[in-house]
Each structure stands twice: as structure tokens, then as C-alpha cells.
Amino acid sequence: MDEREVLAVDVVFVGGGPASLAGAIRLATLAKAADRELSIVVLEKAAAFGDHSLSGAVLDPRALDELLAELGPVPPPPLDTPVAEEALWYLTEHGRFQAPWIPPPMHNHGHNLVSVQRLVAWLAERASELGVDCLPESPAVALCWDQQRITGVQIGDKGRDAAGNPREHFELGPYIQAKITILGDGVRGNLTKQAIARLGLGASAQAPRYALGIKELWQLPPGRFPVGKVVHTLGVPLPTETFGGGWLYGLHNNILDLGLVVGLDSPDPSTDAHDAFNRFKLHPVIRPLLRDAQLLAYGAKALPEGGLYSIPRLSADGVLLIGDAANMLNGLRLKGIHLAMKSGMLAAQAAFTALQADCYDTQQLAQYDDAFRASWAYTELYQARNVHQGFEHGLGLGLMNAGLGMFSGGRGFGVVEALPITPAQQRLQKITEVAPRAKQRRVIPDGVVTFDKLSDVFHSGTHHDEAQAGHLHVADTSVCAQKCTREYGNPCQYFCPAQVYRPNFIEHDGRISGQLDIDFANCVHCKTCDIVDPYQIITWVPPQGGDGPVYTGM
Ligand code: SF4
After folding, report:
1. Cα–Cα distance between 230 and 417 in angstroms, integer?
2. How far does residue 31's CA lie from ligand 1's centre (Å)?
């Protein structure tokens, strides 16, 4: 080991989302009950806990209730708005049909509309009160290894060296040496990705699938949309081969929470979720709601949509995987926060048992996998285990499969236990097959209801110090110029919801010249580029601590 600062702890949680914080709270309460002192650290890349957290979100309180029962008297969690009424709309070009009933798994009565940013901030306060070191501005940039055992992580330094020059890499921060490293670094976590690849944790899992969620908060004139009303939509603006749907949630103070989820496994390489969101807002049913309204906030985040069979092995020597990083999301119920929290709590229980036994090897930590399989989280995901696979064949068959799944304990169309799924990159069509459609459908933003990507980035509060080295690593830009331009039409210009990638290539006499410009300062950390790039040559890594979006109330 070199001479960098070493901080030895019992457990480090990487990523300060609901999974890690619920896990840290559970671990601290177990230690307190056993009168054992533990050093527990939660690392978060944002300037404050919650700043990078974004979700719909209608919270299923099951995991939170379990946590509250352990915590005793604490300030109430920020459960903003109780759900008062629900609807499911199918949007056509000019109108909508309302479903006569809502499938039971999608019922939200008794749940609350929440801001996950505020929930995370609240969880971080509770964790800190229990003695957990919650460290903001601390991006974990590398795993530390002892052969095949993970021994901790390295925190990225600020992006500039002592002389003020930008660093080439961010691998010069303190080293957190931990008995157990718990990876909750979010969807397509940069360290989880490395751990899965090196340790083969995904060998028995299906190829993960993802979607991109785009969300805005709007200040409406009084009385425009009922408080506590929850609407989910299907249909327009998405073509039937693209998975996804929209939502409208009525929050207190006349705030409308509006969003659209768009599958990142669409066969169309020109799929642009931001453009689709603009078209969603222009729909004749949605647009009147936004008349004389004001945009308050914008954000985007990828979602793990693959379901139960995309969950990798959750433990290995010295490490556990939790939350979005482990693909814990129920696509049928459109929910993941409660599963993320539960996975963190189960991991904490397994970590505590391992600490008591002073043993952190693969066999010991596999107790977490066993506990997950015995939990309500697994049972819930099992009931929805084949949902996303059905949408591979379009919206109609996807809905039929999901409906059948409700009456067959989650089997759906499957005569086998797990319906097969194709890796997203293999579904992607060449641009020659889809270019004419793509050109027809871009919205020209009006700056009132629809916005260009840079205006929306402004509403995400995003800031990056531009003196640092870029955090979006493209392994070989000649692939972008010479292959991607012809084969897929440089989809990075479409899929990024923050206009980070600007391919400036021109073809002359059969030769392509120019360059890929990357405006990394616009990045809202959604991870889409790392997921969807057809050649898998883009790697997202955390920028310097504190940089990125500032999601307020999201
Ligand atoms: Fe998302 Fe990548 Fe664009 Fe950043 S650069 S906003 S991670 S797609």
C-alpha cells in the first residue's frame, strides 16, 4: 500500500441513498442493543445527503415502518402527501381512456407521495444521531483488493492538485479500510460494476435491463390538480416497442410531480427520453394542466427494470450489494425505495452477525443472500419476476403477460420459471432502419411548457468545477467517428438527457473527420451513457466530491 491516509473502520457503506442509510441505522441499532462499539461510515458523493436522490415517488412504507419500530421516538419522517385517489390512463394521440380498475399490485391507498431527497436527508440525520459517520463530498472511486477479497474503497480527492492543476485521475484520496464493504452506489454503480465483473457475481443472473426516468416539479395555479391524486399513464408518447409510461402526482402547495419512464432497451437508437417527455407535456390531456404554471425543478435517473432474475449474487468475500446497485426494483409496482431499504437492513443484519463471529468470507456473508430469499422483499419480487421480459415483445403482449402474471403467481406467459430476455445492446437496430422516424418527431421547445436540455439542466441545480478532469471516459473516440456514426447515428446525442455529448463528425469523400465534444459539466449523473452506449466504451466515474445536481424536493 502507498502512503495515502488510511481510515480503518468496521463497515463502509458506499453511496448515501435509502439502502445504505437504512442499513447503517439497522447496524448501529444492533450494535447499540448488543453494547458493542462499531465504526460505521456512509460515503456520499453529493455535497449534502439527498442532493443526488431522485425518485417518483409513492412510498410503500413497509421497510420504513420496520426501521421506525427499531428507532424509538424520533422526529417524524417527511411523508409529504397521503395518496387520496388513483387512476390509470391510456393516452391516445388526442385523448385518454381511463382504466375501469387498477390492478391490485399497483394500488397505493395508505401510501404517501414523498420526496426521496427529503427522506434521504432525514435518514442521514437519524444515522448520524446513532454515531454513524455520514460523509458527504466523498465519492468512492476505486475498490481495494487483497486478491479476490474486497478490503475497502478509495475516496476520490478534489479534482485539482495542490498547485491547482486538474488531476488526470481521482484515485489519490484517503483509503477506507473496512472489514465489510457494502455497495449501495446506485443504479449501474461504478464500483458495483467492477465487483460484479471481477467476481462473476452476475453469472447466474439475466442481463440487467434499465429505463430512464425524467421528472419535473411544476408550481400550478391553485386547484388545478387534486392533492394526493396519483395517475399513471401508458401509450402516447411512446411507441409500442418502447417500454415505459408516465406519472402525475398531486403534491401539497399546488405542486405537480410529472414524469416519464422510457426503456433503455428500445430497439430505436434515436430514442430520446427528453424529447419524449416534451411530447408527453404537449399531450392534449397534460398540456392544459401546465397553463400559467411554472417549472420548479428537473432531474433524470436510470432505473433497474430487470426484476428478480437480474439480481446478481449479493455477497462475496468482504462485500455485500444493496439497493439499486443490486437491481432491487419492482417494475410492476413502479417502486424500489422500500426494497432498497429492506436490502440494506438485511445486509446490515448479516454484517453484524459476521462482525460478532469476526469472519467476513464468502461463506459467512452468504447469510445475506439466504436472508434476502427468506424475506418479504424476495416474495414481492417473485410475484413480478417475469414482468419486464414480456415487454420485450411490445406493449400489448407486455400488458397481457403482466396481467397473466397477477393470476399465476408471477409466471405470466412462462412455461419455464424465468422468461428469457435479450441483452439490450442485441436489440438495438441500425440507424438506417429508423432514421426517417427519428427526424419526424423532435419537439422544438417553446420555453414555456417544453424546454431544451440545457434549460432543464439549469433547473437541476447541476454544477461541476470545469477545471477538473472529465468524469466521462470514452475509451476510443475513433469508434464513435468511424463505426457509430454509420451504424447507430451516434445515439449519445439523443439518449443523454443533459446534452453532454455533442458528436461533431462530418463525412467527406467517404472519410469521417471531426471530434466528440463532451460537456461533462452538464452531467446529472443519470448513468444512461454507461448503460446504453452500443459499444460499451463509455465509463461513468464520479467527479470530485460535491459536484453534480442539487435535487431539491425531488
Ligand atoms: Fe446521464 Fe451520461 Fe448524460 Fe451524465 S453524461 S447526464 S450520466 S447520460
Report:
1. 33
2. 39
Q: Is 498 in the pocket of ligand 1 (CB under 6 A)?
A: yes
| pLDDT per position as a tens digit, 246-296 | 999 999 999 999 999 999 988 889 999 999 999 999 999 999 999 999 999
Total domain count for the chain? 4
| Atom 1 of ligand 1, residue of closest alpha carbon | 526
- Domain match, 39 and 130 both: yes
Span from the CA of 301 to the centroid of ligand 1 (angstroms) = 9
Question: What integer pLDDT is reported at residue 517 of this predicted model?
Answer: 96
CB of 523 within 6 A of ligand 1: the answer is yes
> Does the residue 496 lie in any domain?
yes
Residue of 487, 474, 472 lying closest to 519 (CA atoms): 472
Tens of pLDDT, residues 219-256: 999 999 999 999 999 999 998 888 899 999 999 999 99
Q: Is 500 in the pocket of ligand 1 (CB under 6 A)?
A: yes
From the CB of 525, is ligand 1 less than 6 Å away? yes
Check pocket membership of 212 for ligand 1, CB cut-off 6 A.
no
Tell me if 186 sits within 8 A of 236, measured CB to CB: no
Q: In the listed set 263, 287, 304, which residue is the last one of a domain according to the structure?
A: 304
Pocket test for ligand 1, best of 271, 456, 472, 502 (most atoms within 8 A of CB): 472
554 occurs within a structural domain:
no
Residue 91 domain-assigned?
yes
Task: Indicate whether 34 and 160 sit together in one domain.
Answer: yes
Q: Which atom of ligand 1 is nearest to the CA of 495?
A: 8
Cα–Cα distance list, 123 to 100, 148, 317, 387, 549 (Å): 38, 33, 28, 31, 20
Judge if 196 and 214 occupy the same domain.
no
Domain coverage including residue 489: 453-540
* Per-residue confidence (pLDDT) for residue 423, from 0 to 100: 74
What SS3 class is residue 123?
helix
| Residues 32 and 134 placed together within one structural domain of the fold | yes
Phi and psi for 404 in degrees, rounded to 5? -60, -35
Burial class of 79 by CB neighbour count within 10 A (0 to 12, 13 to 18, 19+):
middle
For residues 72 and 89, membership in a common domain is answered with: no
Which residue is closest in CA terms to ligand 1's atom 7? 527
